[in-house]
Amino acid sequence: MDRTVERQWLDALSDVLTRSHLFQPDELAPEFDEVMAQLGVHTTIYLVDEEQETLRPVPHPGRADPEPQPVEGSLAGRAFTMVESTPALSEPAWWIPMIDGTDRLGVIEFAFDDPDDAADPHTRRRCETIAGLIGHLITVTAPKGDHLLRVGRSRAATAAAELMAQVLPPLTAATRRITISAVLEPSYDIGGDGFDYAIDGNHAQLAIFDAVGHSMKAGLTCSAVIAAIRSARRAGADLIAQGEAADAAVLDQFNDARFVTAVLVDIDLDTGLLRYVNAGHPRPMLLRGGKMIRELPDGRRLPFGIRSVVRGVGEEHLEPGDQLLMFTDGVVEARGDGGEFGQLRLADLAERQTGTGLPAPEAVRRLARAVAAFRGGPPSDDATLLLAEWSPAAAERTVITPL
Question: Cα separations (Å) of 307 from 259, 266, 276?
């Protein structure tokens, strides 16, 4: 390995990181490209839009913007969906996935002056490392302004959607033992749906929510419940006590008849013991070996905001590789020419998507696209899907495979 080249790339990485502390959102892409040009590499950052349908280029002042790239049917889209570096066909260039941890943000095109660089696997790996750094920096830099947020939008978001965007965690999180991935629709107009998770020690806790109604009122209700659940969870409360905190948040803050359906889950990552409370929500599905083996029927209580006597929690024992699919009623009640989408159709599609070895965020994205295609028009209700897989292999599929 050429130590001089290695030092040049390390200096470039250090330069980008040093500059990043004072980046404005609109400065990140051109300054990154300026640093990389010293290595004979030219870069274009693409961010995936809220719908996860199009990869949109981050503008460079003084440079014509390239065309957006479709997620379906393009090399850039393949790099994004499969979390896999993909070579360009007609030029010395690579499409490199850009992820923040394990949350997919988009891709970076690296084009090389020297074709030998494009053929060098060590150069590709260096590009992957820097793409990971840029993913982190975008997450840190974006809240300073609106520039990067605008790039990822094809239209304006409602006030309720803006609120929920500030409340919800990243769509995907993975550790060595579990992967959690979610998708929400309509992305620019969500109101009452939400999700949350926390992975600490030998436990993963996850939740899905659906506040009655739509628009800002529903968003405020869902936000209050998520905040109450987090507060109780971080204080060491169990699932039942978390539900009681959610009840209090709704009843104390709102005078009208509001409520939130939800499922709260705790998974012991050492043993696979899954414990859950279902507050009037559709039953989660358990998939094993690519097959839906059963729904989770226990742990029932009334929705949050309607005080309920909870007699116990449901329990299930996971096997390595098991997947838990949670969803809101906007998924199964989506209406198309054939009536409702329904749980049988969802189970069938879940088996086909999750049994293929796709990265979890891609399996969930394809499920959401299938629901949208069935619906054929604007949704009448929020639709949220959350997939969790207890599997080291699932976690590995969310990151770029090292050399």
Answer: 10, 22, 18
pLDDT digit string, tens, across residues 118-170? 999 999 999 999 999 999 999 999 999 999 999 998 888 888 889 998 999 99
The CATH classification of domain 3-151, taken from the options 3.30.450.40, 3.30.70.1520, 3.60.15.10, 3.40.50.2000: 3.30.450.40
- Which residue is it, tokens 């005078």? 255
Dist CA 168 CA 163 (whole Å): 9
Which range among 80-84, 110-114, 397-401 shows the weakest confidence by mean pLDDT? 397-401
CATH 3.40.1280.10 fits 159-396, yes or no: no
pLDDT at 403 (0 to 100): 44
Tokens of 175: 């550790």
The structure tokens 């107009």 sit at 189
Other C-beta atoms lying within 10 Å of the C-beta of residue 153? 16
Q: What is the DSSP string of 272-298?
A: -EEEEEEES-PPPEEEETTEEEEE---
Query: Which residue spans of the chain are classified as CATH 3.60.40.10?
Result: 159-396
Q: On the CB side of 35, how many CA atoms lie within 13 Å of its CA?
A: 21
pTM passes above 0.85 = yes
Task: Please name the amino acid found at residue 341.
Answer: F
Of 18, 6, 64, 8, the C-alpha closest to 38 is 8
Q: Where in the chain is the domain with CATH 3.30.450.40?
A: 3-151
Tokens of 286: 């358990």
* Residue 81 CA, distance from chain mean position: 12
Alpha-carbon torsion, ordered 161, 283, 298, 359, to 10 deg: -80
What is the reported pLDDT for 402? 57
SS (H, E, C) 313-331: CEEEECCCCCEEEEECHHH
Region for residue 280 given its phi and psi (left: phi exceeds 0; alpha: psi -120 to 50; beta: otherwise)? left
Angle in degrees, CA 187, 212, 350, rounded to 5:
55
Q: Which helix (H) or strand (E) holds 167?
A: helix 159-167
State the Cα–Cα distance between residues 111 and 240, nearest whole angstrom.
54
* pLDDT band with cut points at 50, 70 and 90 for residue 199: very high
CA distance 16 to 172: 26
